[in-house]
Specification:
By secondary structure, the protein is mainly β. The protein has no helices and 13 strands. Strands 1, 5, 6, 8, 9, 10 and 12 form a seven-stranded mixed β-sheet that branches. A four-stranded antiparallel β-sheet has the order 4-13-7-11, with no helix packed on it. It has a two-stranded antiparallel sheet with strand order 2-3.
Length: 154
Amino acid sequence: MTTDNITEIETISTARILDNDLNEWEAGYLMAYRRLKTVRMIDDVEFNNDIVSCTSRKFLSIPYSKFELLIDITIDNTPTDLLIEVMMSEDGARWFKHMIGPFGDLRYVGAAGNKMEAVGGDIRSRYVKLKATATGTDATNIFTLSLDITLASM
C-alpha cells in the first residue's frame, strides 16, 4: 500500500523582473530578510506489512534556497532497510530525485537501530516532496518514521 498526500502549502513573495536578454518578464523572489520554516512532511508513519511506501505532500519551496531534512526513525525488531528520497519539481507534476551528496542513496538499515539525524542540501526548484520506501517489514519488523524539513532563505 502507498499513502500519498497532495496538499500544497504556499509561502511566497514575488515581483516581476524583466530579463533584458530574452525580453521577457520572469518571477523574482524576495529575499530581503532570512526566512526559516520547519514543516512536518511525514508524521509517525509506521512501515509494516500494510504500508511499505509513503510520499509527502508537495511543498512550494520558493523563496527558500537551503533545506535540512530532520529524520526520526524508530525500529522494532529487524526490518531490512528504509530508503528516503528528496524529490524536486519545477511544475509540481514531473518529479526528479535529488542526487547531490547523501541523497543519491539515503538508506537506513534496520540493524543499525533508532536514528535521529539531520542532512542538508540546496533547493533549486519550485516544489519539494519526500518519499520513503521500506523493505523487509511485516507485522513485527517495523520502521516508524517522521520527517521534517527546515527551509531557509539565504
